[in-house]
């Protein structure tokens, strides 16, 4: 495995472990109903952050020019503009986020502040990926996860931790950037996009649309489940929401962390490498699904108690869903590397449409959720594979 991949995966593993511990400590410290409320806020925040992750993907692709070039976009100015745009859009749609994430005003304030700060993180990370600055990127990932865990632990020690937990989840975005940015500022100086500002804005908007669609299936899926099952008590949904968060992490988080690196790698390679990477994700997913079916229920019971019991078949299906999402992330990196933004967006939009349609099926809650979890990313992967196969034929010709 290339050294950059090892460094990034190690940082992602520690940050992912921190996320697991957040889930464990919150679930252990509060009631199932309170945990469900926290899980929906977490899901909503990272739905927004996941959408804004499209900024990082496009900046990674575009930040290939090391010296200032007339007419090319300045990344610093673009970062500020993106942060302001995100804040304005979220404030303008505040009633929607209040409905989804909870009725407390501080919830929306935390969401807006986190989104603005993350835009700055996304541009910085994308520029670092473009500069192949692997160690600073890994440091940013690591510090973010560790700070979030520390903030959550402090919040849980308070008499009423609900609002403090929201702040603790958001603060690591600006704090991690404040820690890392002074160290890498000189390295980032002079890096510009490879396209003018208008083209960069257009490409970024397409990447954000696709990333937003992907975030619906990843971070936002628990919130979607909650919205699609209004008659279910929060405590009844808690085991499924916990299972979703746990089964997403081992496959999807590494794929997301590696996407910018994959864009860099695929930019200089052929479609065959992209297809091989997708196949490897499939093999890993199959193994993890079997493991989840066999050992998952006992591990959940031992770790969280009988209130969070989930059967093995459901866990295996959720792992398979996560594997499909990871495969779509990898295939999407290949499409972005080839500047196929339109196809990239189309795949994720198809996934969301199919997922929402599945939620409307006349089925009981659990099978309906499983069908939605599998059908959406499966449809997106099909779109991508057709496009990649056509691209391979085109290159061969």
Question: Which short descriptors sum up this protein?
Answer:
Membrane protein, cell membrane, mainly alpha, 397 residues, Poly_Biosynth_Transport
Describe the protein's topology.
Layout lengths: L2 H27 L2 H31 L12 H18 L1 H8 L3 H26 L3 H23 L5 H9 L1 H17 L8 H21 L3 H8 L5 H34 L3 H34 L7 H26 L3 H19 L5 H32 L1
Q: What report would you give on this structure?
A:
This protein is mostly helical. It has one domain. Helix content is 84%, strand content 0%. It has 15 helices and no strands. It is globular. The relative contact order is 0.13. It is found in: Cell membrane. It is a multi-pass membrane protein.
Radius of gyration: 20 Å
Shape annotation: globular
- Kindly give the count of domains: 1
Strand proportion, as a percent range, falls in: under 5%
> Would you count the extended β strands for me?
0
Subcellular location: Cell membrane
Main location: membrane
Organism: Pseudolysinimonas yzui
Keywords: Cell membrane, Membrane, Transmembrane, Transmembrane helix
What's a concise summary of this model?
The chain is an all-alpha fold and 397 residues long.
């Amino acid at each position: 495995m290339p050294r950059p991949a090892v460094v990034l995966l190690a940082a992602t593993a520690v940050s992912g472990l921190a996320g697991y511990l957040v889930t464990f400590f919150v679930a252990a410290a509060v009631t199932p109903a309170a945990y469900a409320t926290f899980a929906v806020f977490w899901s909503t925040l990272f739905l927004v952050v996941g959408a804004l992750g499209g900024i990082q993907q496009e900046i990674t692709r575009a930040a290939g020019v090391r010296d200032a070039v007339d007419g090319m976009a300045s990344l610093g100015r673009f970062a500020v503009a993106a942060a302001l745009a995100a804040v304005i859009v979220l404030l303008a749609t505040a009633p929607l986020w209040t409905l989804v994430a909870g009725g407390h005003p501080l919830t929306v304030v935390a969401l807006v502040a986190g989104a603005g700060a993350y835009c700055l993180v996304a541009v910085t990370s994308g520029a670092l990926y473009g500069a192949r600055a692997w160690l600073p990127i890994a440091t940013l990932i690591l510090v973010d996860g560790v700070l979030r865990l520390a903030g959550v632990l402090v919040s849980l020690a308070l008499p009423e931790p609900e609002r403090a937990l929201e702040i603790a989840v958001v603060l690591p975005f600006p704090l991690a950037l404040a820690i890392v940015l002074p160290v890498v500022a000189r390295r980032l100086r002079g890096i510009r996009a490879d396209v003018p500002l208008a083209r960069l804005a257009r490409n970024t908007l397409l990447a954000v649309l696709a990333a937003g669609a992907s975030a619906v299936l990843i971070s936002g899926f628990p919130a979607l489940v909650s919205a699609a099952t209004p008659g279910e008590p929060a405590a009844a949904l808690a085991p499924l929401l916990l299972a979703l968060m746990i089964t997403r992490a081992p496959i999807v988080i590494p794929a997301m962390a590696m996407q910018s690196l994959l864009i860099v790698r695929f930019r200089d390679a052929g479609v065959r490498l992209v297809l091989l990477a997708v196949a490897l994700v499939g093999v890993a997913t199959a193994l993890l699904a079997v493991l989840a079916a066999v050992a998952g229920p006992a591990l959940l019971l031992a770790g969280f108690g009988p209130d969070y019991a989930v059967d093995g078949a459901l866990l295996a299906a959720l792992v398979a869903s996560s594997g499909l999402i990871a495969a779509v992330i990898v295939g999407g990196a290949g499409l972005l590397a080839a500047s196929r933004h339109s196809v990239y967006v189309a795949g994720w939009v198809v996934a969301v449409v199919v997922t929402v349609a599945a939620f409307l099926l006349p089925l009981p809650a659990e099978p309906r959720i499983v069908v939605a979890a599998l059908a959406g990313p499966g449809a997106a992967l099909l779109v991508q594979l057709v496009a990649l196969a056509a691209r391979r034929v085109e290159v061969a010709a």
